[in-house]
UniProtKB/TrEMBL annotation:
Gene Ontology BP terms: purine nucleobase metabolic process
Protein name per the record: Oxo-4-hydroxy-4-carboxy-5-ureidoimidazoline decarboxylase domain-containing protein
InterPro entries on file: OHCU_decarboxylase, OHCU_decarboxylase_sf
Native source organism of the sequence: Paracoccidioides brasiliensis
Keyword Transport carried by entry: no
């Protein structure tokens, strides 16, 4: 059963451990995210989860624009906390991430092997290997970052085209912007799902 979210109006009065669990549910578990987001919850009220998520996104964007190495380290800690896309059996993969990535991993697991013919399974395995290779290439090109995209039902080949485009673009500042936006899009989607 997926986690649930408390009413947004109660968030400021909840214990810090509960606030941390909410942040970990919306984003991914990151002490650096807690460092920038918990003060928001202590000093500000929000009318909705999307407004909280946008405020956290604004904090991450401010860190991205800052020139201090400490700010960069905090931001990279947050952006690097997201699980690698398309990799199976990651110990740190949250249940929500596992569900969100299920379509990318379909065809590479045991159920996919039984349900699909040999050609489809082979293509899925090749795409999984290509995605792993591109994740490695991405992380080598953009040290400290992890490729993050709001999958939202997109097929693996579309994701492969996107990561290739972003690697070829080679712009770390644009990457930070895209990752922050993707993390916020994912968090808003999770909030909507967990509140309905």
């Amino acid at each position: 059963m997926p986690p649930s979210l408390p009413p947004i109006s109660t968030l400021p009065s909840l214990p810090e451990t509960t606030q941390t669990q909410v942040l970990d549910t919306l984003f991914e578990s990151s002490k650096d995210l807690h460092t920038i987001a918990l003060p928001l919850l202590a000093h500000q009220t929000f009318s909705s989860y999307p407004s909280l998520i946008n405020a956290v996104g604004a904090r991450m964007t401010a860190l991205s624009a800052a020139n201090s190495s400490q700010d960069r380290k905090i931001l990279h800690g947050i952006l690097g906390a997201h699980p690698r896309l398309g990799e199976k059996k990651q110990a740190s993969l949250s249940e929500l991430s596992r569900q969100e990535q299920a379509g990318l991993n379909a065809g590479a697991g045991e159920e996919g092997k039984k349900a699909q013919d040999e050609n489809v399974r082979k293509k899925a395995e090749e795409e999984a290997a290509e995605l792993k290779r591109l994740n490695d290439e991405y992380e080598e090109k953009f040290t400290g970052l992890r490729y993050v995209v709001f999958v939202n039902g997109r097929r693996r080949e579309v994701i492969i085209q996107d990561i290739r485009r972003r690697i070829d673009r080679g712009d770390i500042e644009k990457e930070k912007e895209e990752i922050i936006q993707a993390m916020c899009d994912i968090a808003i989607d999770r909030a909507q799902m967990l509140q309905s």
